[in-house]
Structures are given as C-alpha cells and as structure tokens.
Design brief:
The structure is a homodimer. Chain A is an alpha/beta fold and about 500 residues long. Chain A has 20 helices and 18 strands. In chain A, β10, α14 and β11 form a beta-alpha-beta unit.
Chain lengths: ~500, ~500
C-alpha cells in the first residue's frame, strides 16, 4: 500500500471545476491501476493531516502530468493547502454514510433533524460529489418536503455555519425572491432603514441567471467584497451595509447547493425557504421582510403559489426564531427603468436624490418595503412606517446615508455608462398590454450584463402606456459592438416580448 | 458575435472525464467574459457541422492553454471529430426541453412513452450533464415508476438503439442481476445451450463495483472485444458467443445511465428492468432466463423484493415482445470457489471438463439455468431440459463447444494464476454459519480484481462446513506484494466476514 502511494507528487494544473474537488491522474499511474480507480470514482486524498474527497478525472496527455504526478482542481488544491511537489496518499472512499438518508428520502420516507444534519454536514465537508448533491436536491424537490422537514433542513443549515452576534435586540433584513428585472430596492431600503436608526446588515448575492444581483449593482459604485470584520465595523458605524454574501461566507452549504440547483434549474420550495432563512439567521437577523413578486413571467406565477410560500416562510421562520413578514407584490413588469448593474444603480441614485424624473414605481416599492420594516420591527410601532420612510427619503437623508455607507465600505464612485446603444422601436401604435420579464432579462444578459456592468436594457414602455409607431420602447446598452450585435440579433428571432394591443 | 468566436482554436489536452463532455477555457478568454460563462455552465460547442453540449471547466494555468485556445475532454474531442488547431464556435445552451419532463416527474406526475422518448433521446445525444442525469435517475428511483412507466422507459431505450436481426425465430439469452460473488454460470450455460443447437448471442458487462464481470472473466481465456460483424459471424458459426457488450454498443443510453447510477449507488428497480430488457431486445433475443439470487448480503435481500422484480421482468418483457422466465435462487453464499476473473474461469473450466473436484454448486446452477433455457424456448418442450443440459455437459461436448467459441472469438489461451497468496485461517473450530458476500467481494477487489485478473479470493468454507481451528477458510490471490498487503490489512479491521457457530 505504502509502496504505491508514495509515488504521487502534486503538480499545479490550475483547473477550476467550480467548487467540486477533482483529482487528475494519468491512466498509467500505478495507483490508478492497482486500485481500479475509474473516472467518476470518488477518492480520498490525504496531504499530511488534510483530507478531502475528490472525483477522479483521467489525463491521457503525458505532457500535462509526468509519471508519478497528480493534479488537483483549484478548490481541492486550496482545501489541502497544497504546494507544488507535495506528496499525497490516495485511498478508496468509504461510502458516504448520509447517502443512506438521501436514499431513504428517495423512497419517500420522512427525514428528521439529525438526518438532515448528517447530510448537510457531509455536504459542508465536501464529501458529496455534484451528482450526489443533484440527487439530494431532486429527492427534496417538488412537494417532497413537508413543513417539518423544511424546518429541520433550515435548522441543519443554520447549525452548519456560524451566526453573527450583534449587541442589539432588533436586527432587520429584507429579501426578494427574485425573478423580476430591475427590482433593485435594496440600496434605497437599506439607506432609509439605517437612517431611521435600525441595524440592517444586508448581504446580497451576485447574479447567476439574471442580468444583475444586488452585489453586482452595488459594486458599480463601491466595494462590496467585505470580510466579516469590515462588514461589522461598517454596520457599527452606519447602521447598515450592502455587502456581497459570498465574501462573508455565512452559509457555505447554501452556496454549494445553489450552484448545483441553478445548473439543474430544478426549483425546490423547501430548499429555497431553508436557503433564505438560514442566511438571514446566520446574519444575526431577528426581523425579515420578504418580497414575493407574482406575475405570468416572474419566478412565482400564481397567487396561490405565493400564498403557500408566504405560509412556509412565516412558519419556518418562527421555528428558528425569526419574525418574518411577507409582501406579495405585482410582478407583471420590470421595476424602474434600468436592467443591468449600472442602469439599476442609476435608477436607485435618482430616487435617493429625489430627482424629478426618478422612476416612481421603484420609489414606491422601496418606500413600501422600508415602511414595513420600520413598522413591524416594533421600534416605531406607534408611527406610520410608510410615512416615516417617505419622509426620510424625501428629506435627502437617505441619500446622505447611502453615500456614508459607500464611503465606509471603501468609497463612492460614479457608475460609468455604456457607450454603445441600440433603440428598439414600437412596431405599431397602441397600448402596452403585456411584458415578458424573462426575455427582457435575457436581452440584458446577451448585451453583456452583469459581466459588463454598464450593459443592459433601459426600459421605457410600462404597462398601459400609449405608444406611437416607431417610438422607442426600450434601449439596449452595451460595452462593445459585438455584444450589441449579439443581443440585437436575438431580437430578430423573437416576437411579442412587449405586446401592444 | 462572429468576431469573438472565431478566436478559439482547439488544443488537445487529453483529459478523460469519463464520458461527460467538458470544455476547458481560460478565465480571461473573451468568449468566457462576454458570454458570462461560469464553471458548470452548459455550452453548445460547434465544430463545422458537429455540435455537442459540454460543461465548462475554467483553466487558470496559462501554460496549459494559450490565449485563444480551448480544450475538450476526450469524449467531446471524439464526438466533434476534432483535430489540433480546429476552430470552434460557442454559444449559450437553450435549455434542454426534456428537462421539463424530468421536472414533471419530480412533481410525481406520470410520464408517458413520448416523454420518456424525449428524455432518452436527449441523453443519447449527450445533451444531459451528469447532474441532470443524476436528477432523472433520482426522480425515477424508489417506487416512483409504475409498471406502465417502466414499460414506456424500456420501449424508449430500445428505440434509441439498434436491434440485431437474426434469421431464426428463437434467440435465447440469460442474465443474472448480480451481487453474488463467483456466480459465473455464463461460460457453462452458453456452451451447453449452443451445443444443444439454440442461438445464444450473449453479451456481458465488465465489473464496475464487483471483483469480476463475465467479460473480464472470459477475457482471461479469449478475446471479448468483438465488433458487431465479428460477433454475428461467431454466432452464425458456433451458435453462441461470449462478448463484451461495450464493444458492440447495443444500448448507448444504458451505458450512460449506468455510469451515473453506479457512482450514485442509487438503485432503481424501474431502470434496472429497462436496462436489462432493452439490452436483451437490442441483441435480438426472444426468450430470456433471469437469475435473481436472494440473500442477506446479496443485491436482493428479501423473497418479497425478488417476487416483485419477477413480476416486473415478466410483464414488462411481454410488453416488448420478450418471453421472460425468472429464477429466484439462493444468494446466501458465493458460488463455486473462485472470486476474481482467473479464479472464476478456472472453476468454469473445471466444471466443463468434468473434473472430479469441480465445484458442484456451480455445476448444478449452470445445469439448472441451461435446462430452463432449453425447456422454455419451446424447441425441446417434449424433453426434460435439465436432463438434456446435464447430458451435454457430462458428455464433454459443452467443453468442446466452449473451446470452439473461444477459437472463433480469436483463440483460447490458458489463464495465468497469481503468484502471491495469503491463507486466511479459521479463528476457532465450528460450523460455518453465515458469509458476508459484500465483504468477501471487497477483499477480492482490494487484492486487485478485476484489473489484476489473477487476483481474488479462493473460497473453501461453504455454509454448513465443519472446520477446525486454523483451517484455511479462504485464500487471497494477488499479482503483487503490495496488493496482498493491502487486502490482508483490511482483514485486521473486520470481524465475522465468515461467521462460525
């Protein structure tokens, strides 16, 4: 055993397999032969005291790996703290015990809290391959988890991470379940709520399938890559922050699950609830307002589904000590005018600055969200929260607070607009009758958002608006001619993205 | 769009990701940036007319890929018929339509035949990533498929491949669902049945989790990598063959599903039925005998589960025009004495040669299987099949037929035994009361089987045998000292692999 494994030395290949640990071996390496390792096998890799489990890929090309060498994916390289030339030992993986629990779930048994803890801990410790995670997600999807199981999953996910401690009894937070382009209320809401004196340590995600996440949007004006210590000092100083959740690492398991879930495009209500609430609990929140936009082309398509989600969020939230208020909102069209990081932050700034042409729908929605937070946090219970939020916004204090938070995060910079534009014109005169959120978002993606932050769609035809033939209904923004061409060519294959009656 | 994609040229990396198509791109490549591709994304790769869908891995190491270069996994390289320096075009993948059907199944809806056809065709065309396949397998596992769905899945899998045509009305076949070490009746059964005049074009698999598959076992004495034309000519000449199924490529989809299923270790009754029967139908079989060993440490653990499988095999078989006879057999201990390719073929040869010390249990089971095939094929209905099988075996004609088939496949060679051995002794005197098939199989794997064909376990303590203290109960065979040490060290951590009462 020794004689074989001492032969393997690490070579840095720099292959990023997106989180999943992969080990690269030559087909003719003695360990591979004697152990009967085949591609897709799971192998235990030990470097000194550090042990990980990795999936095997075989490298045939003899110039990439020399005899006696092995490679690791970037994530695995980091996990065992590897240096070029380090020795590793390989062994067959004992089956992951908690996959028994997953199999039990596949057979439609109910899982209890300790079963979910075993699974979540094994996922946290990177013992699951992507296909095992996909199997777990599938087994929990659809309506396969009941409310007790969702509670258990949420608790297990909270226990797998750490919880930020604040020395205040009320910590507020907000979350939108997404799916509605331009619905970027966070910069405004955080500014109002923090200005009102509440603590709102907001962490946000980057876009994965949408044209912009709140983190992408805020990144166009300030630094969002805060570590935990910086985030805490920003919040202690200003009462709020707008940081990228990934840099804080509040819920490592959730990050792993989401990666596979998005690739699968399998929605799981139970996992969504657990994901959102575990992150809020980990951030130390006590009161959370959740926005569920409902519309034909939003993420949630019916009032009934929204009510079910509302029930789950409220009851599961309570079981983990969170007070949750759910707002079911209109998801029939984009919010504001900009779709894409720079275009969205410009809408927010325009609202914060009380500019006369600021998008009114964005302003109203932000005031509503902020107002609910102020009211239900019980700190301002004798006042009208919505009026208070409106006053703070219109006084200009929210704009000052926004700039102060940006400054605390590393400084405020003006977002840079895109240089290339393409106007999309109405094909006929009439009234805007329906808007396909999904395809509007897709055009913004094709134009380059969020990787090209100034790219996206500037939307100028809300529902009910009367337009003339050849009037501009939206404008595509791009940072390069190629991307502009790419998105405008997509339009040629599409009909009725914006329907005119 | 053109301007960006013309920049990518292929470089051969020689990375084998075991079937799944993977494309390797530099993080700084313009396509990666402008398209917002992230690792785990699925991308359409076009080389001339050839199009595939691949998962993205990002390569950070700038010496592996130069600017403007892209790499493909071995399978993807082959699929697009790539040459070093070929130009490729990349585009975002339109969502795979049939994943809607998979999602519908997750929501516990029933799928009809056309839904299964869409899924199976997309899997055949490599449109599914491993995690999507894992999701499909999970959604169909447990008891999630009813008998109608299993029929539909089986039909879809048959239609996705081609069916071998024979100009005979009766084509027989056998299959054992596996899980019982040493249960290697195929070489004997095929020899008897072909000698009796029936057509038995037997294809077998290689071991994945077991110490030996029939293909590995036959490979120790002859060539099993037959292409379809060679296989047909062997069968036309000798009435039977023993070929590796993988080289014939009868059921491409099944090979893909099995790969992920084994890695997941998720059993799916529905998929097992569809897998076995679609391969039999593709081989042109009309009559199939299926062996289901039942035992505490076999694959099927209860009589009840075996009866359910029997019902499924029979009814689904009928729906696709196969006459299926199921034998539920004793799976409480290994069959014969050898476990591992060479050790097993030596048992078979000993039975075929009618050597006085040939393992009687293997002989009896082979005669039973062959007898049933002879009887139920209706060709010998007036005779006692088991007596006929016994007569053929004991006359020496089966041994002649075995040699003739080997000769037709490329020649017979003597299997080479292992040079290293380790005797495991009884710890006390008593009667053998229980045998753990799984751990016996594991020891054989650790000793090197099936990659070292002579490695394995020679088993000498059947249930009920009275043994003395320090009597040899089994012997480990290895081709190297390292492997012998590896397997014997495992024993130190284990208790009661063979229980003595």
């Amino acid at each position: 055993m020794q004689e074989r494994t001492e032969l393997l030395y690490l070579k840095e290949l720099g292959i990023d397999t997106n989180q999943e640990y992969v080990i690269f071996l030559r087909r003719d390496c003695p360990v591979c032969k004697s152990e009967g390792f085949i591609a897709l096998n799971r192998i235990e890799v030990a470097l000194g005291e550090n042990k990980i489990i990795a999936s095997l890929n075989i490298i045939e090309n003899k110039t990439i790996l020399q005899k006696g060498q092995a490679g690791l994916s970037q994530s695995a390289w980091k996990a065992v703290n590897a240096k070029e030339g380090d020795k590793i030992r390989l062994s067959h993986l004992q089956p992951v015990q908690s996959m028994h629990d997953v199999r039990s779930k596949i057979y439609e048994n109910r899982l209890n809290e300790s079963a979910f803890q075993r699974i979540i801990n094994d996922i946290k410790n990177e013992k699951y391959s992507n296909i095992e995670i996909a199997s777990f997600i599938t087994a929990c999807s659809g309506d396969h988890l009941n409310i007790e199981e969702i509670k258990s999953l949420t608790k297990a996910m909270i226990q797998a991470g750490s919880v930020i401690q604040w020395n205040k009894s009320v910590i507020v937070d907000k979350h939108c379940i997404g799916g509605l382009p331009g619905n970027r209320t966070t910069p405004i809401v955080v500014s109002i709520v923090a200005e009102a004196g509440l603590i709102i340590p907001k962490t946000s995600s980057r876009a994965i399938t949408s044209p912009a996440g709140t983190a992408d949007t805020m990144e166009t004006v300030t630094n969002v890559n805060l570590d935990l210590a910086t985030m805490k000092s920003v919040v202690e100083q200003e009462g709020g922050c707008m940081a990228w959740g990934g840099s804080i690492g509040l819920s490592p398991v959730d990050d792993i699950l989401i990666r596979v879930e998005r690739a699968l495009e399998v929605d799981s209500v139970g996992q969504m609830i657990a994901s959102v609430l575990s992150k809020k609990a980990a951030a130390g929140s006590t009161h959370v307002v959740i926005d569920i936009p409902v519309g034909k082309t939003a993420k949630i398509r019916s009032e009934e589904d929204a009510e079910k989600l509302k029930y789950y969020f409220t009851v599961v939230g309570k079981s983990v000590g969170l007070k949750v208020k759910v707002i079911i909102s209109d998801g029939s069209q984009p919010i504001g005018r900009g779709i894409g990081p720079v275009l969205e932050i410009r809408d927010c700034i325009s609202v914060l600055k009380n500019e006369p042409d600021a998008p009114r729908d964005l302003k109203e929605r932000a005031i509503l969200m902020a107002g609910y937070i102020l009211e239900f946090s019980n700190v301002f219970k004798r006042q009208n929260g919505i009026q208070l939020a409106k006053d703070i916004l219109e006084s200009g204090k929210a704009w000052n607070k926004f700039q102060a938070i940006c400054k605390a995060q590393g400084g405020f910079k003006d977002p840079k607009p895109a240089q290339f534009r393409y106007d999309v014109l109405s094909e006929k005169a009439g009234i805007i009758s329906e808007i396909d959120n999904r395809r509007i978002a897709k055009i913004a993606r094709l134009a380059g958002a969020p990787n090209s932050p100034a790219a996206g769609v500037y939307f100028s035809a809300p529902l009910g608006k009367r337009v003339q033939k050849d009037e501009v209904i939206y404008t595509i923004h791009s940072e390069s001619l190629g991307e502009l061409e790419y998105s405008s060519e997509y339009l040629k294959t599409q009909k009725n993205i914006i329907a005119i009656a």
